Amino acid sequence: MYRLTANLSNRAFPESVTSGNILHLASRRRGEYVGFDDSGDIAFVLDASGNMLAEYEYRGYTFSTEAYLNG
What is the rounded distance in angstroms from the CA atom of residue 41 to the CA atom of residue 64? Predict the structure, then answer.
């Protein structure tokens, strides 16, 4: 699941989005696209000029024994 970390535009981006839907955030009619960094852990929604509109960070589920025991 990707979580919104920065919104630098006046558009309303969702707070979280699945890995399958991250590519649907860009408006193709406006020339926007989604770029990835850090082996896909960070996703950027960029406008046609390459300016960042939003940034998402991947936060997958991780199992922690300590969290399980503290419950």
Answer: 20
DSSP structural state of residue 71: -
How do the domains of the chain map onto residue ranges?
Answer: 2-70
d(CA 71, CA 33) in angstroms, rounded, equals: 41
DSSP string, 3-22: EEEEE-SSS---SEE-TTTG
Place of tokens 């699941």: 1
pLDDT digits (tens, 9 = 90+) for 7-55: 999 999 999 999 889 999 998 899 999 999 988 899 999 999 999 999 9
- Predicted TM-score (pTM) of the model is 0.80
